[in-house]
Amino acid sequence: MKRFLAIILILVPLSGAADTDYFFANRVMIRNGLQAVLMCNGLFTSHRTLEQVFSQELAYVAHKVGSADGGDYQIDSQMQTVAVGGADSGPLIRAAFREGIGCVVMAPDQGLDDIGTLPTLTLPPLPGDAAAIAWPNGDLLEDTPLPASVNGDALQAASDWAFDRESPEQVTLSLMVIHRGNIIHERYAPGVDMHTRTRTWSTAKSIAVTLIGELVEQKHLALDEPLDLPWLPELVSAESDPRNHITLRHLLNMSSGLYPVDSFGMEYATGSGLSYWAGTSSVKGALDRGAVREPGSFWDYENYDTLLAVYAMKRALGTDKAYREFPRRALLDKIGMRNTLLSTDRFGDFILSSQVYTNARDLARFGLLYLQGGVWGGEQLVSPQWIEFVRTPAPATAKTGNFYGGQWWLVPDDRTDVPDNAYSTAGNRGQYVIVVPSHDIVIVRRGLDYGEQGFNRWDLTREVLKAIKPGAG
Questions:
Q1: What is the CATH number of the domain that holds 362?
Q2: Are residues 254 and 371 in the same domain?
Q3: What is d(CA 206, CA 150) in angstroms, rounded to the nearest whole number?
Q4: How far apart are CA 257 and CA 392, in angstroms?
Q5: pLDDT band at 236 (very low <50, low <70, confident <90, very high)
Q6: What's the angle, vertex CA 410, arms to CA 424 and CA 433, rounded to 5?
Q7: If DSSP codes are grouped into helix, strand and coil, which group holds residue 380?
Q8: Do residues 168 and 431 make contact, with C-beta atoms less than 8 angstroms apart?
Q9: What is the pLDDT of residues 325-338, one digit of tens each?
């Protein structure tokens, strides 16, 4: 691969030097790892067919390696691994399914013999049969008519709006609407059902901030105190490092002031892309960014800001075991999110900026937790103060529409057609959990959008709320 890159650079004329992509080798490696992870999770986490994976999970990947009929990839169903690359397709990158975690991407120089070194989570499953437990703790539903506060025709029209898109690049997999705690609409695309787990992408960030909020409430973390992180590279006079002024609030507001590595066209060349898809440490990469702005002064959407906050959570929990089990014990098991897998890098650090696999119902439970003010089964899991924090606009967004809070997205100032108290998770390819307190509504939309995408969650909110009669919140 290095020789191939060198030949390309030699052949580029001097007049075109400004256009040379010096990250080409990274992009090829990341492309292979991305395909390996999506194929591995598609087959062994989501239990989709290879044809479905190529037609939908991989639809947004430019220059895919091979097709459903074959190519430069290897699937080992017994070991539950997928390796992509080799021959003329760049370095071989392998992803392996691990119990309780999902697929973990390996380094380019790792092989099948290294799979046993990868992390697992062996906590026993939540007891009971979800099919026999009533919603929302389980999946058993009563056959009840729509409440008088809901217009059934308008609700179906909103559903059709979500599924019957004007663009084939907008692929809705599922839609759920929860009103007053009850499921009033649930619909799935062909090949998908209530058990199908797909990647949350950045909706995972809202799960991360929920877990972090529990530790803040327990005073294991503080929102406005320096994080005391071991920044890289290590400095002789570490106490003078300007990064010491960064607080948890800055990270969760996406306003750390650290050098941007996931934006400006570098999403699949440097930064967290190497952690997501190429086997580098998500922690070391996050720590190794210099300060370029005053913390809190500039909003820049960076996966590594979230991962720094997750690393602070790990340090607060003290041990690897406590850290690995914390999401299940503190959140997932408590609200019946049985189908949710939080994945890690190969070093055991949660990639809670993106790498979570779950189904629509589990995300509906998550949204319902927030709609209920953080209370579940009489227990206050998320404090009202923390919910207020995640819904408060990040100061650095004040001049651009107040559209982002603490790892949740807010209704921007220029939208007047949806309630301004609504707030939403958001993940690549159309993963949304929308909470509308004024109407007692949670909306979940899962997608596998690609290309230009363009599915707008606030437009969906507007359409769904047409079905809820005024004063029905």
A1: 3.40.710.10
A2: yes
A3: 29
A4: 19
A5: confident
A6: 5
A7: strand
A8: no
A9: 999 999 999 999 99
